[in-house]
């Protein structure tokens, strides 16, 4: 790769955000290296939903066709149904122009992008344990195997347990990480298996949110509508959020009986789906809390869950990470960006992204409480419709290109 800039970038984390960042920097000839703690690129075997805002980002980055080889974008109009009884319609979210969404199997996403990345700058089994500044303004990454790496810019895309976040917040400060009193049971089931088992609900046409009291179920098709991605949430909304982490394993495989018992009394289709989730993984969901007022410190910048890990109740966490990467990479790739202007680039990024991503995080948390209050003593259909109306417009209808233009305006002297 011919270097087109006088600075180098270290990307910490090889997930959705890290690989998207690497693929974009590779395309524009920026010197980079990517460090992944695992021995290979690989995400948990589950689906991820991208709303229209995220689909637009992938299209702008010329990555959509690669990602959507088996999953063509469709109008992503969530339908809410009752989890109990006959699964009556509760609310159908209105469709808007350019409202195409996408459901993707996470490993497929990474497999699609990995060939775009230079293997000579891809480093596996590199668990970053700290980041330290140098007098020169560069930063040194320290890895658990004793090795180090210096870079002009560090992109922290190392997820909810981020080490780079600690470097931004300060090691002497609280970790900004909380267990959300929410667990999510995840699994994948062939759609034909569910149809053969008697499920009558349409599982293919649109994503579904099955609502109830203290719990809800999300389903959407992936892998060319052959597989149903399932996430079953159980939460205790009465408990206040505390700055503490779950004391044992955050993710574990549990017997399907535990999941089925949690949803006892739900309707036939819901229970059939849950009974077919063999050995579901149980996730203790954590979030960045309190939200970060800044995603940067010196020449370290956070993106994705490292910056704003959130409850997934708007299906927007991965999309916010893609927005982060889009804005950051467009700024880094701009013709006037060089080593001497990196601080201004990060300030421009930081003037826009925290406000946007933190708003989505807060709304996502609020929506979880709404989904989980339908039933005997909670909302009726009309009340829930009133609560749900218009909830996705601020997320889905966001103009990311305009956001980049605003950041460039800041960068090149009109405000900063």
Automatic annotation (TrEMBL):
The entry's keywords: FAD, Flavoprotein, Oxidoreductase
Superkingdom classification of source: Eukaryota
One GO MF term: FAD binding
A single BP term in Gene Ontology: secondary metabolite biosynthetic process
Record Pfam families: FAD_binding_3
InterPro entries: FAD-bd (IPR002938), FAD/NAD-bd_sf (IPR036188), FAD_monoxygenase (IPR051104)
Record bears the keyword Oxidoreductase: yes
Boundaries of every FAD-binding domain copy: 7-362
Protein name, entry field: Salicylate hydroxylase
Lineage, top ranks: Eukaryota, Fungi, Dikarya, Basidiomycota, Agaricomycotina
């Amino acid at each position: 790769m011919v270097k087109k800039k006088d600075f180098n970038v270290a990307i910490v984390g090889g997930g959705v955000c890290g690989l998207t960042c690497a693929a974009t920097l590779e395309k524009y000839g920026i010197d980079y290296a990517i460090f992944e703690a695992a021995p290979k690129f690989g995400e948990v075997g589950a689906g991820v939903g991208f709303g229209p805002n995220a689909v637009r980002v992938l299209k702008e980055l010329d990555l959509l066709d690669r990602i959507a080889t088996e999953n063509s974008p469709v109008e992503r109009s969530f339908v809410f149904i009752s989890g109990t009884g006959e699964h009556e319609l509760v609310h159908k979210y209105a469709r808007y122009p350019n409202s195409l969404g996408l459901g993707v199997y996470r490993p497929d996403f990474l497999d699609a992008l990995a060939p775009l990345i230079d293997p000579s700058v891809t480093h596996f089994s590199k668990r970053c344990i700290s980041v330290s500044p140098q007098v020169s303004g560069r930063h040194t990454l320290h890895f658990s195997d004793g090795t180090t790496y210096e870079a002009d810019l560090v992109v922290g895309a190392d997820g909810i347990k981020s080490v780079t976040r600690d470097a931004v917040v300060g090691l002497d400060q609280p970790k900004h990480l909380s267990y959300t009193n929410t667990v999510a049971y995840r699994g994948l089931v062939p759609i034909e298996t569910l149809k053969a088992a008697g499920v009558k609900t349409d599982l293919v046409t649109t994503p579904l949110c099955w609502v109830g009291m203290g719990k809800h179920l999300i389903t959407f098709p992936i892998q060319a509508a052959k597989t149903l991605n399932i996430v079953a949430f159980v939460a205790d909304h009465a408990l206040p959020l505390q700055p503490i982490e779950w004391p044992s394993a955050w993710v574990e495989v549990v017997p399907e009986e535990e999941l089925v018992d949690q949803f006892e009394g739900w309707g036939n289709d819901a229970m059939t789906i849950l009974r077919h989730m063999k050995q579901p993984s149980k996730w203790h969901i954590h979030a960045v809390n309190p939200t970060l007022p800044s995603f940067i410190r010196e020449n370290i910048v956070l993106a994705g869950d490292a910056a704003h890990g959130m409850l997934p109740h708007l299906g927007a966490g991965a999309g916010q990470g893609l927005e982060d990467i889009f804005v950051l990479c467009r700024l880094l790739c701009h013709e006037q960006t060089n080593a001497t202007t990196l601080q201004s680039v990060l300030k421009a990024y930081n003037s826009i992204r925290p406000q946007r991503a933190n708003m989505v995080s807060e709304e996502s948390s609020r929506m979880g409480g709404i989904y989980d209050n339908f039933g005997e003593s909670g909302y009726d259909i009309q009340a829930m419709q009133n609560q749900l109306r218009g909830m996705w417009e601020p997320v889905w209808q966001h103009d990311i290109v305009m956001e980049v233009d605003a950041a460039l305006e800041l960068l090149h002297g009109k405000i900063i």
